[in-house]
Amino acid sequence: TQLLEQSPQFLSIQEGENLTVYCNSSSVFSSLQWYRQEPGEGPVLLVTVVTGGEVKKLKRLTFQFGDARKDSSLHITAAQPGDTGLYLCAGVYSGSGNTGKLIFGQGTTLQVKP
Amino acid sequence: DTEVTQTPKHLVMGMTNKKSLKCEQHMGHRAMYWYKQKAKKPPELMFVYSYEKLSINESVPSRFSPECPNSSLLNLHLHALQPEDSALYLCASSQGDRVTGELFFGEGSRLTVL
Fold first, then answer.
1. Nearest CA to A38 among A101, A72, A83, A102?
2. Which of A102, A108, A109 to mutate to test the interface with B (most CBs of B within 10 A)?
3. CB–CB of B41 and A107 under 8 A?
């Protein structure tokens, strides 16, 4: 069974704090994506990483793909209440079929208090 | 604004009703998906259509019946549902790219079964 371990599952912090969410697997990914989902909405794609060691930045969000393409992290600097939501990592394992079937992590519910 | 449109946004139905969820995308994507999502959990894959043909059925009960009339439309027909089927039903589309599998989600249809 291919598993994507995401941690922590819940995080409640004050505005201005930094945080990191982790996504780990024992298998190699072809690519890995991060989504954010706000209450009452569908998930929205934030970033896709494909190359081992890749680092991508989206304003205060920094995404890193492990050198071996088995893990990824999302770091948020100076969190704001607008960052509140469910963060999902999702990976396409090497060898997946043409439909690009994604395996989702368990999700991280982030609450940023003003 | 999402480019994947789902209707209705909310649906309440009894266990003997027949209803349908609808999804539309005009991005030229050739793969379309139905996911089921419970609160604060990741989406669970139900069905995948690739080039208008059903390519994945994740052992979903027959009371859920998907239909893909053309490359832009995806329906989910519901019949004799159970209260535990209450959830957010998400439609998504992708280019069917093998490497990235990036998904574009609709806002979802919130289903309540009484």
1. A83
2. A102
3. yes
CA B59 to CA B62: how far, in whole Å? 9
Q: Please check whether residue A63 is in contact with residue A50, taking contact to mean a CB–CB distance below 8 angstroms.
A: no
Answer yes or no: do B92 and A105 touch at CB < 8 A.
Answer: no
Contact A30 B43 (CB under 8 A): no
pLDDT in tens, A70-114: 999 999 999 999 999 999 999 987 765 544 578 899 999 999 999
Q: What is the pLDDT of residues B45-71, one digit of tens each?
A: 999 998 999 988 999 999 999 999 999
A7 close to B (CB below 8 A): no
